[in-house]
Amino acid sequence: MTVLLVAGSVGGVMAIAPGAAPVGDTEQRQSACDYQSLFDETIGSVVSVRTSSGQGSGFVYNAANATNTNTTGDTYVVTNAHVVDGASEVEVEFDGNEFRSGSIVGRSAYADLAVVNVSDAPAGTAGLSLADTDPQRGERVAALGNPFGLEETITHGIVSGLNRTLPTELGFEIPNVVQTDAPISPGNSGGPLVNCDGDVVGVNTAGIAQQGAENIGFAVSPSVVERVVPELVDDGEFDYPFLGLRTTPVTPAIADANDLNRTAGLAVVSVLEDGPSADALQGATEVETVGDRPVPVGGDVILAIDGQQLGNGEALGTYLLTETLPGDTVEMTVLRDGEVRRVQVTVGERPDPMGT
């Protein structure tokens, strides 16, 4: 599996998102991280999710802390979509070897998230809350779940990177993924990645298992979970935003081939015919070979969306998923024929992926 890694610092200084905890508060919390107490406080909310084709992990979702979510008293379990792929009924094992039947109320293959409803969860079952913000690099975390069927397992590490893009076997990419060096193995999928306060900072999704790779794991970020899961609970589906574009970051070779004076923005390689952007954006008109590599020539260069500058495709995917919905109108700032223009695009809904 190839993973696209994105630099997350500017001028050698780590950029901290607005609303993140002050460094002093974070250091104090990290130095006091007690993994034994953390395990005791959270493991009762971690479950095993079994289907006829396999087993994964999950956690009880604190729906009461989510806005715009139908809270009927039922218990909702969050897991990965690939854990319950192809299943309609699942078996959920709660703490204390309590088994219950669950029904899938919604799943999103594009975000690799699913929600299972259990109407008769064991008494006293408590949910985990999502962290208010995405984690910071270097923040201590723990992965909880059932790797290889080994129940009630905890591994720990730090947040190694943010805003990663995770390619999938179905040919699309999951944006805004958290990278961690906490070991994540088969069976961990769907379990929570928690911070030292016991809040969920990710849903464990994948790890790289190849020669030379050590402790490179990935989790769906809390901002994506917060956007997708309430929709799955309420409506059984999530309408994934879609522009119908294929882009690539402007490299020196692309800049030279297109007579650009800087390497900024995203070159539009192609635009889906009859897609959301078909009437607003222009794709490359030809491809040149520069140093044995194909380079798109002609077409627009996207500089910003709704005023947010774009340095890479990960930023565009993250903005679409966390800030827009199908039907919204976004303003794209583009460079076309040497002139900066602003065009309006109505966000569409991404078609279901092949194989789901």
Automatic annotation (TrEMBL):
GO terms for molecular function: serine-type endopeptidase activity. It comes from the Archaea. This is Peptidase S1 and S6 chymotrypsin/Hap. InterPro entries: Chloro_Bact_Ser_Proteases, PDZ, PDZ_sf, Peptidase_S1_PA, Peptidase_S1_PA_chymotrypsin, Peptidase_S1C. PANTHER family: PEPTIDASE S12, PROTEASE DO-LIKE 8, CHLOROPLASTIC. It comes from Halosimplex carlsbadense 2-9-1. Keywords: Hydrolase, Protease. Residues 241-347 form the PDZ domain. One of its GO terms (biological process) is proteolysis. Belongs to the peptidase S1C family. Transmembrane segments: none annotated. Gene3D superfamilies: 2.30.42.10, Trypsin-like serine proteases.
